[in-house]
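Below is how a single chain appears once it has passed through the pipeline. First comes the sequence as given, then the structure the pipeline wrote out for it. We keep one example in the README because the format questions we get most often are answered faster by looking than by reading.
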Amino acid sequence: MAAPETTAPTPRPSGRFEALDAWRGVCALSVVLFHLNAGTHGHRWLNNGYVAVDFFFVLSGFVIASAYQGRIDTIAQATRYAVRRLGRLFPLHVAVLAVYLLLEVHHALGHPAAGFTGPRSWPAFWMDLFLLHGFGAYQLTWNEPAWSISVELWSNMAFAAVALLVRRRLPWVSALIAAALTLALIHPPPLPLQQVQIDRLVPAFICVRDFFLGVVGCTLYRRLADTGWCAPAWLEVPALALSLAVFAFAPLVNNLLVGVAFFAVVMIFAFETGPISSVLRRPIPQALGTSSYSIYLTHSLYTLAAFHLVKQAGLALHRPWLLDADGRDLLILGGPWAMDALALACLAVVVVSSRLTYRWIEDPARLAINRWSNRIGRRRA
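Resulting structure:
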């Protein structure tokens, strides 16, 4: 049988890469299950959900470049872009951090000596609040997933600065940045830093590298699409297999290669030509993609609650509920079937609550700040 004809992707009314948006939602759910760390039947696969962060950064660079490449030529445009990015990331971050602050106040009232210490200290709080902790000593404090949002914010700001300075050379400079960071991570230059500081910088620099890989990918996608070339539909199957392999064997794969693998996945699914993209463009995957930021940023509250519920149930039933597995606390109460049920319940709560936080916090704040940002740089009539 002849292979199906491939045609150039048609512009979408929303201007979004819908299959990639759905991928973002799927990856956000994998991070939820990674942080829940329950001994489910699929624990081997779900235990490597942290690699989804690499996908987020490659996709972020791709989408940001798609929306803003060639549109940041003046200080006013760069300022408008920066305000919009702050409006996209900050409001929900502050809301979740406020919940953690209330929880710590409650904890301090019952245990004065233990309140606001360690990862919940006041210095850590201020670093978290202003999203400065992704590159520093307070990386995994308060709302732990927010460390990557900190790196995301400053990667976004670096994009604006580079775009403003080099303009049409942005793709080439982005490629140089990605190559330089890759080289520095392979052969770290001698720095007057302690090993613990270097260990904290490595994940952040990998994320920045992945972001600029995404910027390069967007340029490549545009040039291919302009020539009329389109990724064959059958390529989505090996792309999906590659993604699953990364999740399954992440500990055996060099960290720097994970972002490269997801670069290939993003490039293929950007064309949305295959059957998997058709599934991803359906309402439920699209809804997950829309609320993926809420899923990612709020889920630690629910995984923390699940941990305490399992703890209390285990103590009440006098049954083992926790196991040390590779240095992480693995929930095991009731065996794999019970943990399957826990994981599904946690996912359901996270998805429903994230739709609410998207509807009432994330989206209204984003739209309000976008409207305000439109005034920047405009003269009064």
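Strands lie at 322-325, 328-331.

See the next section for the split statistics.
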